[in-house]
Design brief:
- The protein is an alpha/beta fold.
- 56% of the residues lie in helices and 14% in strands.
- It has a three-stranded parallel beta sheet with strand order 1-2-3.
- Helix 2 runs antiparallel to helix 3.
Amino acid sequence: MKPLGRFFQVTETTNFSKYFLDIDKVLHYPVMFVIKSDLTINQLNAAIQKKAEELYPVSSIVAKYMSSIEEIINIPQLENILTSLSESGQITQVVDEVLIHSKVEFNFGA
């Protein structure tokens, strides 16, 4: 079965082994990682690649994990997105949408 939407994983850790477990959980369907880090996207990608190569000696397995990472968003990129939304007057709509999804996720105020 293919999911209808996108998978997001928000994390404060750069314990990249955990990322591979998250990818396994969704059967290698593309995952977007939002990482609480000021490292550049290239630095984060390189660190994930290095960890994958340490854990999995077979290059095709490394390639499969790396291709499962749809996108990485870091703190500077997230700040740019939020600034852009604020400047365009859309921040309230986004916050409202986040609240709706959070209520559903945590079964709050059904």
